[in-house]
Amino acid sequence: MLFSEIVGQAILKEQLVQTVHENRISHARLFLGPEGAGSLPLAIAYAQYVNCTDRGEREPCGKCPSCVKFKKLAHPDLHFVFPVIKPGSGKAAVSDMFIREWRETVTANPYITYNRWLEVMGGDNKQGGIFVDESKEILNKLSFKTYEAEFKVMIIWLAEKMNRQTANKLLKILEEPPEKTLFLLIAESADQILPTILSRTQVTRVPKIDTQSLADYLAAAGLCDTQKALGTAHISNGNLAVALDVLQASDESDYYLEMFIRMMRACWSVWGKKQAMLDLLAWCEQITQLGREQQKAFLLYCLRMVRENFTLNQQQPSLVFLTDAENDFSQKFNAFIHPDNVSQLAGELNTAYYHIESNGNKNLVFLDMACKIVVLLKH
Ligand SMILES: [Zn+2]
């Protein structure tokens, strides 16, 4: 992983590179930042830079034997710890069980999210964790000398998923770190991490990706044109994983547009027509038939439509990206999305997205969301 492959985060990359130039490599660093901001790729690039035998001013060389192995995430001195699902049969639950899947997945997309990772492990409806067996494994791996690198690196992804027992054992290691060992912890939420771990690590805060960098990346990667890239970057809130989902959702936009129009019409008509409530229930029935990923994609689509209609409502047509069919519908509909309801509407869609993602009852989530929209449209 090269720094140039990471979207945005220019200041942070510079700071990390400086720690190497100034010989300030901390033995334990915590990358703390929201999902989709790039903490994992930053940690990998940093580790690669530290161990590169021919590093440049700002980048690992990408060619030395160490870099070549880092590229495949298969360097013998690079270890990963990440949440896993517990195997049935009372076997130890450790990262190495899934290391092949992990390498494949992260090489293809280092902006992996926790939920995607659960899916990869086939644990869509299970909870993952970093369990106590893992701490033995960590000790084991650290007891060997480095094979060939200057630093042995242990990357712990989503350190907040460590249970207390694991965290306490890790703490002991962090207190007396083995020589030439680099712990790079990654976490999305500081409040779920033991304060003692926080105090023993150098914290690097990873901000959301700025809108322009995210938009530039989407356009440069050929995923969409520049205007759509900007619109997508705006609603994804600096989260690259969400941005990619939004773009995918727009590929299925005909169906989502139809569902969006039906939902909004039924919500609006509930006040006048008895039939409308039945329409709304039928709509809920249909949307709950979709798979979870499609439901999430639909909600992201709704968020985009709300944003674009609000922009239209604010008389900024040059900032709007809509397909012809969406534009036809929005010419009248934008009157219903205005400063008095736009943030609450977006809030309801986000809440529904969160509940679907955390496996909430689909019927309740969508019906509840629709009822809130009924009220907000009348605002
Ligand atoms: Zn190199």
CATH architecture of the largest domain: 3-Layer(aba) Sandwich
- The CATH topology assignment of the largest domain is Rossmann fold
Poorly predicted runs of 5 or more residues: none
> What's the domain count?
2
Query: Quick one: how many beta strands?
Result: 5
Order of helices and strands: HEHHEHHHEHEHEHHHHHHHHH
Global shape: elongated
CATH class of the largest domain: Alpha Beta
Note the main sheet.
5 strands, parallel
Q: Which percent band covers the strand fraction?
A: 5-15%
Structural class: alpha/beta
Provide a count of the helices. 17
Ends apart, CA distance between termini: 49 Å
Rg, Cα atoms, Å: 23 Å
Q: Spell out the CATH superfamily of the largest domain.
A: P-loop containing nucleotide triphosphate hydrolases
